[in-house]
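Exercise: predict the structure of this protein bound to nicotinamide-adenine-dinucleotide.
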Amino acid sequence: MARSTDSAPRKHKVTVIGSGNWGTTVAKLVAENTREHPDVFEEDVQMWVYEENVTIPADSPHRAAAGDQPLKLTEVINKYHENVKYLPKVPLPPNVVANPSLLDAVRDSSILIFNLPHEFIGNICKQIKGHILPFARGISCIKGVTVTEDKVELICEYIGETLGIYCGALSGANIANEIANELWCETTIAYNVPPCDSRGENGESGVNGEHYRDARGAISKTQLAPVPQEYPPVDHDVLHKLFNRPYFTVSMVSDVVGVSLAGALKNIVALACGFIEGHGWNMTAKTAVMRRGMLETIQFCQEFFPETVDEMTFWESAGWSDMIVSCTSARNWRYSKMAVERGVSLQEIERTELNGQKLQGISTTKEVMSFLKARGVQDKYPLFKAVEGIVDGTFEVKEIPVLFRQQ
Ligand SMILES: NC(=O)c1ccc[n+]([C@@H]2O[C@H](COP(=O)([O-])OP(=O)(O)OC[C@H]3O[C@@H](n4cnc5c(N)ncnc54)[C@H](O)[C@@H]3O)[C@@H](O)[C@H]2O)c1
Ligand SMILES: O=P(O)(O)OC[C@H](O)CO
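Solution:
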C-alpha cells in the first residue's frame, strides 16, 4: 500500500556485528564509505565487539601510553583506533565506534552486517531478535552453514528467518589483512531486492507484511516490513556504495545460494590443500585437490539446492578466486599445513597459534559431513569425507590419492 511521502529523509545507520580479523576490516572499509556518502548513511558505524581484556603488544606504538595492564578491547579501539588483538597495526577511521553492548550496537540500525565465526551466529540472533528495526536489512559476510537435524541452511537464510528480515551475502577471495592494508582485490555481494522494497513512481515503498522469495526461490514464511520511503532504498546501488572501495571491487549478483555455499565449502577444500602441502606434496597435488573440491562443491549445490545456483557464480570472486586464495594463502590452509608438519591436531593448532581467531573449516567439515551422513550420501563426496577423517585422526593424508584412484 502506498504511503505519504512528506516525512523527512532518513539516512541508513550501519552496524557491523563482529570485530575479528574480517569483521574489523569490513568495519573499516564501510566506515570510509559512510563518510564519503553522507547523503545515504550516518557517518558513525557501530561495531559490536565481543568484549575481552587485552594487553597492548610490546611493539605497539600505544604501549608507552597504555602500559602493560590489561585493558578492555572496546576502550582500546575507541581510544587508539586500532584493534590491537584481531587487526593489529591497521589504523581505523575514528567513525568506527566499538560497542560491547550488542543491543545498543544494533539499536535503530537499518543495515546490519553480520561478520563473526559462524558458530556464534545462533546466539547472536537469539539475543537481538525483537530488538532490531523491523525493516532492517542484513548482509552476511560469514563463511559457513548451519546444520540442524537433517537440514542445511545458509547463514543468511538462517539470519533472515530468525530475525524476520531479508539478508544477502558477501563472499570473495578476501584475505582480511591484505584488504585492511588496502591491497586490491574483488568480492561478490549476492542480494535479491525484496519486492516490497521496490520503489513506486513517487519513491513509495511496498506493502507491509509482504512475503518474499527466499534464497532458494521459495515463498518465505517471513513477512517483511518494507524499508520506509524516508530511507534510500536498500538496493544494489546502495550496497555498492557501502562496500565498494578503490581497493575492494564489488560485483553485485543475485545468486545468494551459490555465493554462500561456495564461501562455506571452500574452507573444507582449503584444509585438504594444507594437509597435502604439509605432507610434502606441492602445487600439482594441490590443484588436483582444488579441482576435486570444486566439483564436490558444485555437486553439493546441485544436489541440495537444485535450480537455484547459477553456474556463472563459480567464475565470480566468490567462486574459483576464493577457492584458489583459500588453498594457497588463507588461515585454513596455512594452519592445516602446520598441523601436519608438526604432527599435532588442527584443534591444538587453533588453540595455540591463532590468538583467538577461528578456523571455520573445522566446524564446517563436521557440519557438512553430518548432513551428508544423515542422508546416506557421504561416499559421493570423497574429498570432504577424507578431510573429516584427517581432522578426526581416522584417515591419513597419504591416502588421499588412493580415494580418487578407486573412482
Ligand atoms: N579473516 C579473513 O581473512 C576472512 C576473510 C573473509 C571471510 N572471513 C569470514 O569472516 C567470518 C568472521 O571471521 P573473522 O576472521 O572476522 O574472525 P576471527 O577468527 O578473526 O576472530 C574470532 C572472533 O570471534 C569472536 N568471539 C569469540 N568468542 C565469541 C563468542 N562466544 N561470541 C561471539 N563472538 C566471539 C572474537 O571476539 C573475534 O572477534 C568467518 O566466517 C570467516 O570465515 C574471514
Ligand atoms: O583465512 P581463512 O582461511 O578463514 O579464509 C579467509 C577468506 O575466506 C579467504 O577468502
